[in-house]
UniProtKB/TrEMBL annotation, chain A:
It catalyses: DNA(n) + a 2'-deoxyribonucleoside 5'-triphosphate = DNA(n+1) + diphosphate. This is DNA polymerase III subunit gamma/tau. Pfam families: DNA_pol3_delta2 (PF13177), DNA_pol3_gamma3 (PF12169), DNA_pol3_tau_5 (PF12170), DNAX_ATPase_lid (PF22608). It comes from the Bacteria. It comes from Vogesella indigofera. GO terms for cellular component: DNA polymerase III complex. Keywords: ATP-binding, DNA replication, DNA-directed DNA polymerase, Metal-binding, Nucleotide-binding, Nucleotidyltransferase, Transferase, Zinc.
Automatic annotation (TrEMBL), chain B:
SUPFAM superfamilies: P-loop containing nucleoside triphosphate hydrolases. NCBIfam families: holB. This is DNA polymerase III delta prime subunit. GO terms for biological process: DNA-templated DNA replication. One of its GO terms (cellular component) is DNA polymerase III complex. It comes from Vogesella indigofera (Pseudomonas indigofera). Pfam families: DNA_pol3_delta2 (PF13177). Gene3D superfamilies: P-loop containing nucleotide triphosphate hydrolases. GO terms for molecular function: 3'-5' exonuclease activity; DNA-directed DNA polymerase activity.
Length: 649, 335
């Protein structure tokens, strides 16, 4: 016999057994008591918080033989049949596997007939966001004028994908994520009833790992019971959850603080041996670095009961504020690029080595861009275009370099802007130039104070590259006005440059005094709108730049963000963006962000495309330039097409 | 079959046989035998006379069917190799990448299968492999049956990259991370397969023993690596040439160079290598000229190229540019 998993066995059968959704239960109970029933409900919330469960209980409430009630009896024929999943007047439709119009039409045709047994024909449509457009349209008509005996209960994790026309006909309830305490409390109840012994701290760990979902919690609990062979112990759960245990991460950062590469590599191996996933390790590491930055700048923000508080503050003293910032960036980028690495192990350990390479003890500080360039970027200046793969038409860079060997002139390496691979889910080779990952929050963001950050005052290498078209020739020639004669030999731009430059830009933008607060009616052009808002958004600009506007209904901005930018869609950025948009439009607006595969260009993608186009144009201009052609033909010069950058204002 | 290093995994499973959930997620890095383990679990679940340790008997009708690959109560859901990729026109322009996906039709078949009555014994098993190949529609369609499958239906999901699964999928599965082989176990296995240069090959594959061995590819890699060791303009140019002549996808040299850069950085900063132990001494000789920051730049360029790894067009140009970058990491004055 297969065993019935806890999540299924413990699916609540009464409203009273639900955890953490009191607001929904109260509203539904009152409506049931007072017989103020809506004909269509939409339940939203993340995975495993009780959407389907509530839908089924509601179906019982509507059809219980004791009468419409918030407390269905559970013993009558209707209740027992609904619990067993074979009540004729309850139709549960899985929209995700029946996405087509035919299925929906069939169901709706059925709706006109009166119920066979119960008072109501109840349609539960789960994962409703997966319905096709035509299926939604077919449903709309019935939703508009449903027969009195029909109730719809729609459920989805992703209401953004449900057309507004459907949304507006439903009474919507948003289910909340459960707190770790709520989860742990419920798990204790489950284990007591199941007769399984446990240690309370183990449940606290599971509560945290469940990330708001009771189903996740119960799945993990099943796993923990199996792991502990019938017992739920703290050390077992710690080992099972792996990366959630921060001790390994502290060990990594301590090795970094000591600039001890050998130990760093050993700690990486230790992580592997514990079976910790590299992806979650990097995610957790970024979170820890964020905590560290907070500890350095706003110590009060660290909760007194933070489990690793002492270790955190000890480490905060040992790492420089800039280093923490830099490591944070590297961790985020490393995670993003994990799938592109030769294998995940290499991706992870290279990420750690990169951090070490830019450690002050490794000369990281000397490489910092403060030494590099001359002119300060204008606030808000676009970042240099990404260094794209050489076009097929370009002369072989190898030949170009060969031609240079022995020549006196300095070969100026193109200052590498952030090379940005297209997101893994997105086949278009559209590296977004503004893939800068912003610090976590605009207001609480641990940006180092300006007076402590030399690189903030200093110009940054990539901007120099952006302002000077570069031409490398085999002879020292006066290459006319096209060549900036202040061309300096730049140190190759490393992460420090790219990543710190992003900070500098952000900071510069944040510092810039807000410009004219002209109120403009929004015409739907998202790129233009956020272009106007510019620096006002602060770090939340990163969210705006990488979001596509799916829908603007006059009140809510429905934004879609690709998976690769999920970490920019946090609550703090959303709040900041909402505030700025509200101020700009002169009234309160809402923002809703969904993570999904985009079919629309985001502002960042658009900028990247513009830059590519500009770049192609700049190269063409250079290649067709009379002076350049003369140099090439008469003096054997070689045009390094891939080093050409368009001039930015 | 079950590999030698999976004995403890099997015990872990067997100890909990009464609490077997209806959805498993078997995870771990590529090359450790997850698929074979899933097959073994399926075989045991379907066997009509399993042994005391829950291994399949190998004698019964079910085991015979299983061995012949046609057990009617087993379904394996894998990506189809079919080419008709571009369903909606706008993706047609995009460079074709061999990203195999599991589509919703496959999932629908599986749902139907799960609701049929079983041929034998009553149990039915569905293997989904690799689970990260489920496209969003397919993954969503699987949710319902994964959570509340008909009695006696067991799902075995197999994944190298569980973080890429929908959270709603993971939430419905019991995770079961599989053990890695020890170094000795892995080496013994590779030796048994008669792979030439077993130790070096195993190291290159990160210690994961179940790689596909291709002698021609290994030879080309050796040539490539020796060019990197020589580290001169001429040597790296001839590499691009050699790779180009063999018409291999960019992916391969990117992987070689990626691991090589990793080892150079690890040797410089941490004193140890992972993928090329045989070349450690040669790398050591390169270190005095190595600019670690320039190496990190080169690595970043490489990562930027990685999404285009399936291309065979202009491989040479891309590779030349990248190798020039590699040379730059040694261009500085000796320190
Ligand atoms: Zn009842
Ligand atoms: Zn058998």
């Amino acid at each position: 016999m297969t065993y019935q998993v806890l999540a299924r066995k413990w699916r609540p059968k009464r409203f009273a057994d639900l955890v953490g959704q009191e607001h929904v239960v109260r509203a539904l109970s009152n409506a049931l008591k007072e017989s103020r029933l809506h004909h269509a409900y939409l339940l939203t919330g993340t995975r495993g918080v009780g959407k389907t469960t509530i839908a089924r209980i509601l179906a019982k409430s509507l059809n219980c033989e004791t009468g419409t009630t918030a407390e269905p009896c559970g013993v009558c024929q209707a209740c027992t049949q609904i619990d067993a999943g074979r009540f004729v007047d309850l139709l549960e439709i899985d929209a995700a596997s029946n996405t087509g119009i035919d299925n929906i039409r069939e169901v709706l045709e059925n709706a006109q007939y009166t119920p066979t047994m119960g008072r109501f024909k109840v349609y539960i449509i789960d994962e409703v966001h997966m319905l096709s457009k035509s299926a939604f349209n077919a449903m709309l008509k019935t939703l508009e004028e449903p027969p009195a005996h029909v109730k719809f209960i729609l459920a989805t994790t992703d209401p953004q994908k449900v057309p507004v026309t459907v949304l507006s006909r439903c009474l919507q309830f948003s289910l909340r994520n459960m707190t770790p305490q709520q989860v742990a409390g419920h798990l204790a109840h489950v284990l007591d009833t199941e007769g399984v012994s446990f240690e309370a701290p183990a449940l606290a760990l599971l509560g945290r790992a469940a990330a708001g979902s009771m189903r996740d919690a119960l799945s993990l609990l099943d796993q923990a019971i199996a792991y502990g062979v019938g017992d739920v112990r703290e050390d077992g759960v710690r080992a099972m959850l792996g990366a959630v245990d921060q001790r390994y991460l502290f060990a990594l950062l301590e090795a970094l603080a000591d600039a001890d590469g050998a130990r760093l590599m050993q700690e990486v191996e230790a992580l592997v041996a514990r079976g910790i996933g590299f992806d979650s390790a990097l995610a957790e590491l970024a979170m820890l670095l964020h905590q560290l930055a907070l500890a350095q700048t706003v110590p009060d923000a660290i909760a007194a009961d933070e489990p690793e508080r002492d270790a955190l503050f000890a480490l905060a003293l040992r790492l420089g504020a800039e280093d923490v910032q830099l490591y944070y960036q590297i961790a985020l980028h490393g995670r993003r690029d994990l799938a592109l690495a030769p294998d995940e192990h290499a991706g992870f350990s290279m990420t750690m080595l990169r951090m070490l390479a830019f450690h002050p003890a490794q000369g990281g500080a000397e490489v910092a861009p403060r030494a590099a360039a001359q002119n300060r970027p204008a606030p808000g200046a676009p970042q240099p275009a990404a260094n794209l793969a050489p076009a097929a038409a370009a002369p072989s860079p190898a030949r170009a370099l060969l031609a240079n060997i022995g020549g006196k002139s300095a070969v100026t390496p193109p200052a590498a802007a952030e090379p940005l691979p297209a997101a893994e889910t997105e086949p278009e080779p559209a590296p977004a130039a503004a893939l800068a990952v912003a610090p976590p929050a605009a207001d609480t963001a641990p940006l180092p104070p300006a007076d402590l950050a030399p690189w903030h005052e200093a110009p940054v290498a990539p901007s120099a590259a952006a302002t000077a078209p570069m031409l490398a020739v085999s002879e020292e020639v006066d290459a006319a006005d096209t060549v900036d004669d202040e061309m300096v030999e730049l140190p190759a731009a490393g992460d420090a440059d790219g990543e710190l430059a992003e900070y500098a830009l952000l900071q510069a933008e944040a510092d810039a005094t807000p410009a004219e607060p002209a109120v403009i009616a929004f015409d739907g052009d998202w790129s233009a709108l956020i272009g106007q808002l510019g620096a006002k958004m602060g770090a939340a600009r990163m969210l705006a730049q990488n979001a596509a506007l799916k829908l603007w209904d006059g009140e809510v901005f429905h934004l879609a963000v690709p998976e690769a930018f999920r970490n920019m869609a946090g609550r703090d950025f959303q709040d900041k963006l909402r505030t700025v948009l509200g101020e700009h439009l002169g009234r309160a607006v809402q923002i809703s962000v969904s993570i999904e595969t985009l079919d629309v260009e985001t502002p960042a993608m658009r900028d990247a495309r513009f830059k590519r186009e500009q770049l192609a144009e700049a190269r063409l201009i250079m290649q067709n330039d009379k002076v350049v052609q003369q140099l090439v033909q008469e003096m054997g010069a070689t045009l390094l097409a891939e080093t050409i950058q368009p001039v930015q204002e | 079959m079950r590999y030698p290093w999976q004995a403890s995994d099997w015990q872990r499973l067997a100890a909990n046989f009464e609490r077997l959930p209806n959805a498993w997620l078997l995870s771990g890095p590529a090359g450790i035998g997850k698929r074979e383990f899933a097959q073994e679990v399926a075989r045991s679940l379907l066997c009509e006379a399993p042994q005391a340790d829950h291994h399949a008997c190998g004698q019964c009708q079910a085991c015979h069917w299983f061995a012949a690959g046609n057990h009617p109560d087993l379904r394996v859901l894998t990506p189809h190799g079919d080419d008709e990729e571009a369903e909606d026109g706008k993706e047609a322009k995009a460079p074709k990448r061999k990203l195999p996906v599991i589509k919703i039709d496959g999932v629908r078949n599986v749902i139907e299968f799960a609701h049929l009555s079983a041929h034998r014994g009553g149990r039915r098993v569905v293997i989904v492999e690799p689970a990260e190949a489920l496209n969003p529609a397919a993954a969503n369609a699987l949710l319902k049956v994964l959570e509340e499958p008909p009695a006696e239906v067991v799902f075995l999901l197999v994944s190298d990259a569980p973080q890429r699964l929908l959270p709603t999928i993971k939430s419905r599965c019991r995770q079961f991370p599989l053990s890695l082989p020890s170094a000795a176990q892995a080496l013994a296995w590779v030796n048994e397969q008669g792979v030439e240069d077993a130790e070096a090959e195993l190291a290159f594959h990160g210690g994961m023993p179940l790689f596909e061995h291709d002698a021609a590819e290994a030879a080309l890699r050796k040539q490539f690596v020796s060019g990197l060791t020589e580290c001169s303009m001429g040597s790296v140019l001839s590499l691009a040439d050699a790779v180009d002549k063999q018409k291999v996808a960019l992916e391969l040299p990117l992987r070689w160079l990626g691991k090589w850069l990793h080892d150079l950085a690890a040797l410089r900063l941490g004193g140890a290598v992972r993928y090329f132990p045989a070349q450690q001494a040669a790398m050591q000789r390169l270190l005095p000229r190595l600019n670690i920051h320039a190496l990190m730049d080169c690595q970043r360029e490489l990562t930027a190229l990685a999404p285009y790894g399936q291309h065979t067009l202009v491989t040479r140009l891309q590779l030349e540019a990248l190798l020039m970058n590699y040379l730059k990491a040694f261009a500085g004055k000796p320190t």
